[in-house]
Design goal:
Elements: H1 12-16, H2 22-35, E1 42-46, H3 52-57, E2 63-68, H4 71-83, E3 89-92, E4 104-109, H5 120-132, E5 134-145, H6 147-154, E6 158-162, E7 166-175, E8 178-189, E9 192-203, H7 207-217, E10 219-226, E11 239-246
């Protein structure tokens, strides 16, 4: 698993918040919970980051658990939950080796966190861990950046971002189904700028491979959508959302 996001955690929300419709994610997730009669007791958000998705959904559930591999991201999430006076169990764990000794009615892993799993055995371990923590009538929602997006849109391209307090350059290299993202940041620190670099990697997964892994793990696909909508997945869809549950014995 990738362990990036150390320095990035403090500026993560500023850089991505405007590009993501968290309200839409919440509404579609809760709509699916109603559709599949999900009990609103235990909720788990994997790769929770700074908690932006979890905090939207949290007040609909009695118990909330947040898991991430980055202590820095978890610290940001904890402060956010305290600010909203919401309680959550915050755990630093690798989601491919999840061990919480609890079952959940809803598990989410969104905003392409699954793409950060790079090896076949790790993705299978991740799905098995989810299955072991999912209640019989619970559902698991996860999305990926599509193969099309990572190979055709992000791959081998350079992007820049500039604001009053932050500048960064983002250079991508796509090779052997992996996008290597090399980011250089300049963040205002008083009258000067602090420079740091991070490298992130995402794997471009094909739909049929994910479907096969789900089948082998004993997870049943209830629905597959273009992002957080009812639209069917197309060849040029950029985000693909799966809704799954345990196969009935």
């Amino acid at each position: 698993m990738n362990t990036s996001y150390k320095d990035f955690a403090s500026i993560y929300d500023e850089l991505i918040y405007e590009d993501i419709d968290y309200k839409k994610i919440k509404e579609f997730t809760l709509e699916l919970c109603e559709e599949y009669n999900v009990n609103k007791e235990n909720y788990l958000d994997l790769a929770c980051g700074t908690g932006n998705v979890a905090i939207e959904i949290a007040d609909s559930f009695t118990n909330r658990f947040l898991v991430d591999l980055s202590q820095d991201m978890l610290q940001e999430a904890a402060e956010k939950f305290r600010g909203q006076r919401l309680k959550a169990n915050i755990v630093c764990q690798d989601m491919t080796e999840l061990s919480l000794n609890k079952e959940f009615d809803l598990i989410t892993c969104v905003l392409d966190s699954t793409n950060y799993i790079l090896e076949d055995e790790e993705i299978k371990s991740y799905l098995k861990s989810v299955k072991n923590h999912l209640r019989e009538d619970g559902i698991f929602l996860f999305d990926i950046n599509s193969y099309y997006k990572l190979s055709e849109i992000l791959g081998n391209n350079i992007y820049t971002y500039n604001s009053e307090d932050v500048f960064y350059s983002w250079e991508n290299i796509f090779e052997d189904e992996i996008v290597e993202m090399n980011l250089t940041f300049f963040v205002r620190d008083g009258d000067a700028y602090r420079r740091f670099e991070e490298v992130h990697e995402e794997r471009a997964y094909r739909e049929d491979f994910i479907d096969q892994c789900l089948q082998e793990t004993g997870l049943e696909v209830l629905g597959k959508y273009e992002g957080y909508s009812r639209n069917a997945v197309k060849q040029d869809s950029e985000r693909i959302l799966w809704v799954v549950r345990k196969k009935k014995e």
